[in-house]
Amino acid sequence: MVNTLFLPELREMLAEQNTQELCEFCTALHPARTAEFMEGLEPSDAWAVLRHAELALREEIFAYFPHEKQVEIIESQDRAEVAELLADLAADDRVDLLHDVDPDVVEEILPLLPADERREFLRLRDYAEDAAGSMMTTEVAMIDEGLTVRQAIDELRREAEHLETIYYIYIVDQNQHLKGVVTARRLLTALGKPEQKVSELMDTDLIVVRASDNRDDVTRQVAKYDLHAIPVVDDHRRLVGIITHDDVIDAFRQEAEEDAQRSAAVAPLEDGYLQTDIVTLWWKRGVWLTVLFVAAMFTATALRYYEGQLTKWGWLVIFIPLIMSSGGNSGNQSATLIITAMTSGNITTRDWRTILWRELRVGLMLGSVLAIAGFCIAWLQTLGEPQLDGQRWWPLVVPLTLVLVVTCGAVTGSLLPLLFKRMGLDPALMSNPFVAGISDILAIIIYMTVAVTLLS
To answer: HSE on the CB side for 182, CA within 13 Å?
Structure first.
């Protein structure tokens, strides 16, 4: 919800070019609150307000703007002023932001950036979007292993304002090979021995990731070891950057959004829902909706095949939705559990025999519970049905079908993600549509096979 409390006053200040009050507005509140009160302004007006803040404060407020507004400002405002702002951003934030800016605008801005920031941007941009290198910042607190405690603190004092975090201080040799890590607390505690070497304080048992590692590996490592930041090294174990916890949280959030979209059989959106054009929405939803439609056609074909039996025993029709939904729900449950377990690293494709055995037992247990309820429902729904006269085994049709269908759904839903993963396909995107289609077809075949067997 847009906060409109100060919008009239802000517009009046801009119209009157009231520099003093605009400066006070920028400095009076926390940057996040300032950005919130500016949400209703057009990008050009928001930038006009920001120009009244000091560069460091301007960058802080700008960081709280919605991503779309940030992109609009960069594309529409003076290139030199924008470059000055971008140069003050963290390296990883700069890369993420310019990734969505018009390439022609980026090419105009790059020559205006300081040489170090420009080289850094070009290097980070070369990493794949889902690689650790694209998440990292190169503003790292690192010191030479030969420094004393006093020298290390003096060095950090000079560099502190340019670093994103100094909770972890990384120890490197002259060739920037990562040797160890020491916390800021431990370094300060060691001030009682100012001539002690930092190499004597460092912890050499390090958790690191390579710049080429997938972001999922990064998030798992940070979550597993509860780290505030994790170092990123190249193939020669040279320290090239760190990934901080806020970047990991962003990756978690993005991954959760993508998984939620995949679970609904929608190809993940690259932009927000409102920022995605209608044609793209149509395509990303339509592809898998078509797959589900084709699966439903096979289900209809299966029903057509058993048309004679359904005419003879018409009471079977009323239980078809119950049977199909039970199998589909069981399959989707299993698929979701397996996909999340693979994402967290809890299981791999090599565990398929264990998973099969577990899901077979769980499916039988779940099916047995539903069979009891199914028996009661079937009995009540078919009391007095003349077609059942002389049919001794009819009460077992629905319960037995439920046991088989739920078990098959559980097994299918657990093995399909493993199969797609083994084939190099995205299990989250591929599994649910196929689980739904296969479960529906199996439900009809099993149901009618059981019915024909027991009623003939």
So the answer is: 26
